[in-house]
Amino acid sequence: MNKKESYLNSKLPTPVYVCEESLLEKNLQLLDYVQQKSGAKIILALKGFAMHSTFDMVAQYLKGCTASGLYEARLAREEFCKYNTQAEVHTYSPAFKDEEIEEIARISDDIVFNSPNQYKRFIGKVKEINPNIQVSLRVNPEVSSSPVDIYNPCGLYSRLGTTLQNIDESIMDELDGLNFHALCEQNVDALEEVLAVFEKNFSKYFKNLRYVNFGGGHHITKKGYNVEKLIWIIKQFRQKYNLDVYLEPGEAVGWEVGYLESTVLDVFHNGMNIAILDTSAEAHMPDTLSMPYRAMVRGSGEAGEKKYTYRLGGNTCLAGDIMGDYSFDKPLCVGDKIIFEDQIHYTFVKNTTFNGIKLPSLAIKRKDGTIELVREFGYEDYRDRIS
């Protein structure tokens, strides 16, 4: 359903993710600045941000999408490319399936294999279906400063990418590109470290390539990121090897472009003040538990910083479904709104209906201040995904 309401007098159903159009465009403009100055191509990693109701704007700035399988590839082709007919669809999977490879080949401009085994198994069929498709291999440089093991693709015994020891020399001259992914919301110094090892170990395979993909995790839109150094690094690499460069951030697109609004359902005391919300850390903000990190709440402080401290909890039966302890200037009451900042990237792409909890609605705050409710979810969404 579509519905526009004044932001100041919003009666949006909660919980609801609200993407702010002006903030999204600001991120996109910065990413486009990197493209223009460095010559790199930046494509949207759908695993981090896939709000296709914004693709009319995103497609004006970015060069395409990177997908992690068939369904994301379809979303890119059907929803992104209709706004940019020149957009590229790059598809990677740790392992492709026989029953999906033909469709993936048809709708992709580039296919990325995780191992030489996968390349050998599927390259004939892929080229038969799409003779013009570009083919690349994901490699593992075996170096990363990723802050959390769960998001470290280059950790010990990683299943992601081919290490130098496992390179199959017989396929290297047939590739159009190499991909590496080693970062997680990090600054350019982390890229510099990884790139030095990548060049040392894999540059001998560059002679027949068209491009190298630097992967994601580049926190380009975060305050303090050294954008000019990134541009310099990319330009130096392109000039040295005469190769195109791709970056595929997800969080950098959706970074600080919106929030998750919830409502206080109950307030009580059990050794401390506790407020139950109509949202869930487990189901709606999964990275706050898996990263983990403490989401910022608008108008709040640390526990004890302001006069009234509350533990904010989710509305599921999981004991650990807790957002954290926050303090406020005034007591919380049933019906109050709680706004969790920066909850657009890696949230609705990962959320669940655990415990039968309702999925948050999706809304866009337009530049004129109106809010468009672009999607509500109901019982059928819960029922149909488990039957």
Put the structure in a nutshell:
The chain is of the alpha/beta class and 387 residues long.
Describe the overall structure.
- The protein is α/β, with parallel strands linked by helices and 387 residues long.
- The chain has helices at residues 21-38, 55-58, 70-80, 101-107, 116-129, 169-172, 188-202, 227-241, 251-254, 281-284, 287-290, 379-386; strands at 4-6, 16-20, 41-42, 44-45, 64-67, 88-92, 110-113, 134-139, 177-180, 211-213, 244-247, 258-269, 273-277, 301-302, 308-313, 322-328, 337-341, 361-365, 370-375.
- Helices cover 28% and strands 23% of the residues.
- α1 runs parallel beside α8 (227-241), α3 (70-80) packs parallel to α4 (101-107) and α4 (101-107) crosses α5 (116-129).
- The radius of gyration is 22 Å and the shape is globular.
- Residues 1-9 have low confidence and may be disordered.
Characteristics of this structure?
387 residues, Lyase, Ornithine Decarboxylase, Chain A, domain 1, 2 domains, ten-stranded mixed beta sheet, 12 helices, 19 strands, disordered N terminus
